[in-house]
Amino acid sequence: MHEMGVAQQMVDIALAAIPDDIENPRVAVLNLRIGKLAAVVEDSLRFCMEVITKDTPLEGVNLVIETIDVRARCKDCGHEWVVEGPAFRCPGCKQGAVELLSGRELEISSLELAD
Amino acid sequence: MEIKVQKRVLEANETMAEKNRKLFAEKKVFVLNMMSSPGSGKTETLCKTLLRIMPEIRTGVIVGDICTTNDADRLKETGAVAVQINTDQFGGDCHLAAHLIERTATQMDLDHLDLLIVENIGNLVCPAEFDIGEDARTVVLSVTEGEDKPLKYPLMFRLADSAILNKIDLLPYLDYNAKEAVDNMAEIHPGMPVFSLSAKTEEGFEPWIEWLTSKVNSKI
Ligand SMILES: [Zn+2]
User: Fold this and answer.
1) What is the predicted pLDDT for the residue at A98?
2) Which residue from A106, B13, B148, B168 has the least number of CB within 10 angstroms?
3) How far apart are CA B105 and CA B97, in angstroms?
4) Where's the CobW/HypB/UreG nucleotide-binding domain (chain B) (predicted)?
């Protein structure tokens, strides 16, 4: 499991994004985008965040996770579709060359400070 | 108050991976990231591979393990330069990240290597997520595991450049559908070469060695 490392990175990114002139900031919400294909287990991530944010401005932060579908495009026929399940073959022409458009996201889109 | 961030969490790793890739390009070293589940016979496959390609292809190996040096010790017997990274000092991580590769590779004599193989930690989930600056990825699976492994770990197979289906010498004794395993890999990653072989008997080794050799030669 690498959720602890991911959580640590998230805390680092969030802390760096808080403007210096805010006194005693407290991060209430962290808005995340996580692709279905990213190897991140949501429960583990929540648990790791809880542990790692103790005594930081992120303590008790609410993780709002937007789950991003796996989208693919066939390089041969241009067909675009949402990949459900693990197979990646183009349902249009059954050819091989498939390009991944989304699904591997692991991003912080914004954070919300408590008033 | 909302603050826009829009930052990728793995960016630090990706930046380091790019730096590694530049270094490896400069040194003309082909880097192969070998991944597998635990017990698939990755080290044995590597040992037999090294015995076939050395000394023509000067090879170094970085072995990742959570806490033992058993694998590196076995690999050194082939004459290759093998360095072990133990991740227990980094919290028992489940994968090798780019900064660990940087730290280790820069201590190796890259000017005298054609090929650097990174034997990643036995785990089909996490290593797939971390770019280390490699040129190619090979995933090793064995016939003692389920035929559906590729479907369960799609990212690993999606991002691999080739796959090895190991331990085919055991097929007569198992109720294993090798065709189904290979078909499942093709579903996830159509067109990916799959080498069915036995590291023990070395049956089926030629196509794999040819693939690896041609990849290495393309970078020299
Ligand atoms: Zn198509």
Assistant:
1) 84
2) B148
3) 12
4) 33-194
Residue B76 has pLDDT above 90, yes or no: no
Among chain B residues, the shortest Cα distance to A1 is held by B94
Closest to B135 measured CA to CA, from B29, B8, B14, B7: B29
Please give the Cα distance from A43 to B89 (Å, whole number).
25
Q: Note the pLDDT of residue B92.
A: 56
Q: Collect all residues with Cβ–Cβ distance below 8 Å to B58 and sequence separation of at least 6.
A: B112, B113, B114, B115
- pLDDT computed for residue B91 by the predictor: 53
Question: What's this model's pTM, rounded to 2 decimal places?
Answer: 0.89
Q: How many domains are contained in chain A?
A: 1
List the structure tokens of B114: 């054609």
Helix (H) or strand (E) holding A7, with range, is helix A3-17
Q: Is the pLDDT of residue B9 over 70?
A: yes
Here the tokens at position B49 are: 């591979």
Strand partners, A34: A67, A106
Q: What is the CATH number for A109?
A: 3.30.2320.50
Is B6 within 8 Å of A107 when comparing Cβ atoms?
yes
Contacts of A39 in chain B (CB under 8 A): 125-126, 128-129, 155
At A93, the pLDDT band (50, 70, 90 cuts) reads: confident
Q: Which of B115, B91, B93 is nearest to B105 (CA)?
A: B115
Q: Is A79 annotated as a binding residue?
A: no
Sheet with strand A27-35: strands edge to edge: A62-68, A27-35, A106-113, B2-8
- Which CATH architecture is the domain B2-217 placed in? 3-Layer(aba) Sandwich (3.40)
d(CA B183, CA B147): 9
